[in-house]
Structure formats: C-alpha cells, structure tokens
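Incident review: delayed structure delivery

Summary: a single-chain prediction request sat in the queue longer than the usual turnaround. Root cause was a stuck worker, restarted by the on-call engineer. No data loss occurred. The affected request and its eventual output are reproduced below so the record is complete for anyone auditing the incident later.

Affected input:
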Amino acid sequence: MAAQDAVISDGPLTQEAFYRLVACAAPQDQPCAKPFYHWQSREITVGIVQRDKPFLGGKIKRAEAAVVRALQHLNAVDMGVSLRQTADDPDIAIHLLDVARSETINLGPDHLLHGLRMANAITALDVEGSRIIGASIALSRTMTIRQYESVMLEEITQALGLLTDIENPYYQSRSIFSQNADNSLKTLGEQDKLALIRHYPPH
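Output delivered after worker restart:
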C-alpha cells in the first residue's frame, strides 16, 4: 500500500474534513476512498537501513539529522504512539537509494518498494486488513539536501497511516501534507498535529 496522490480541496478545511482527507483520502463531504490504517504497537521504531553511494558523506549526515528532528517533532505531539530511532530491524525502514526521481525502484519482488515509481521520496505500508505491520520509505538521489528535513518529516508521518497529500494552496505553508509546498516547511502544522492525535488518541 503506497502513499496516495493528493486530494484536491479549496480553502481552510474543518478538522474533521482535514483528518478524513489525510487518513482515508476522502474529498470534502464525500466518502472515504481507502481504509483507515493504524499501527497496533504503541512504540514504533524508525531507522535508516540502506545508504547508497550518492548519499555517502555530508548527505548521510543530513539525512540522519533529519530523522532525529522528525522524531522530535512527532514525539512532541500528545498522541498515543511514540517513535524511537534504531538501526536494528526498524518498523519504519528508510532507504537512501541511488534512484532518480521518476525512475522505477528495483529492490527485488518481495520488497514493499519494488516496482514503485520514485518521487522525491515515497512511502509504502505493509498491511494486514487495517493493521500496519511494517513500512518502507525511499529517498531519491535527486532530492536536494535542503529538502531532507521537510520530506523526512512528511514521509515518517505518512508511514503512521496518514497517507494522502492535500492539494490546496491554503495549506502550502500550513501543513506537512501540502502537495503545493516547496519542502520548506520543517514542522507539523496545527491541523497535522490534531490529525495525529485523532488517529492515535492518547492513552
């Protein structure tokens, strides 16, 4: 299950409409286009598991720092899951790939990301029914270093089950899910945080 394309909307959305858009790809005032997906575990591990040659040196340091920052932002949200960084078989596995934007990812037929068309980054979930049992994120070699922090935060957030982007100019500077953004937003918007709390209510 790969992250969905964006759903078009216009102007500010109610929190209910915002949540349904990012969580189940529902256009405003319309039914869900896909199921809701949740992790069952209350602690989810995240880590970089593959570092292809183009990322060696300064790029890998920036990518690792972007993971740290993303987890800081997400763990500051009062939701019912926490994230922990590990390189040891993480639940959310991050691959820094020698694959350009628009190229096809080739990691072997059993891999979650295999056969997907690369964007700046892409997220895929391994699901059983509505339960997420694993996730993989790929970053492309053509992404610029200045985009790492924003993109890493968006992709890890999507790996929590909020898979759909918002195509709506209003959210360009207000949501990490904005399809219109230039990847300069490096924090979660207020509605992003509320959507995470709705998806994973505190204990």
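Verification: The helical segments are 15-24, 58-75, 148-158, 190-199.
Action items: add queue-age alerting; document worker restart procedure.
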